Amino acid sequence: MREVNLLDSYPRIKRPxxxxxxxxxxxxxxxxxxxxxxxxxxxTQGYGGYYYDGRWLAVARRMQEFYGLMPGHxxxxxxxxxxxxxxxxxxVIPGIRVAGxxxxxxxxxxxxEDVRPFLVLGSADRLPFADRSFDLVVSINTVxxxxxxxxxxxxxxxxxxxxxxxxxxxxxxxxxxQRENFERWQLTALTYFPPxxxxxxxxxxxxxxxxxxxxxx
Length: 217
Known about the structure:
- By secondary structure, the protein is an alpha/beta fold.
- It has one domain: Rossmann fold (3-Layer(aba) Sandwich), CATH 3.40.50.
- It is 37% helix and 18% strand.
- The protein contains eight helices and six strands; from the N terminus they run αααβαβαββαβααβ.
- It has a six-stranded parallel β-sheet with strand order 3-2-1-4-5-6, sandwiched between helices.
- The two termini are 25 Å apart.
């Protein structure tokens, strides 16, 4: 396993912690439906509008370089939402084969048209794919939305369907201030740890891939 930030080019924004904290008790149930409100509703309910703006292109190029992705390779995005990363991978690497899974029927219905045929509705802990189906399996800010047992199973599923590389990013915190900010901000996470706790969970799940943390500043 390697700790590596493959989203280092992704723009960081100032999060309105106070606004989210005040609304969180009544909005968490809404957010966990992962419907229109979560993706395209008010900022207190989730993204506050999850629209394509090309920001995943740099991430796609980073993954191409880091994993040596080429035309014909198969990539799965677990928790793909509207398929932005998969769309950009197809732009960066013409001929790459992509698949995505998300629990949100709304997100899949709103996905970018060129990748929508490759997306399926489902849960990260029950991937509907054969063993060793993909050269790279990616999951960004998704498995922590499951309870502990299902989170562990989702990580096992990533391992099962990959024949080569895995990249997993999850919510975490390095300081007490970051932990407090995370708990003021988060709406959907059920499983979260500081890095050492995540590493223990990765080991218990038999995870051999790469990983990094999403930290609330």
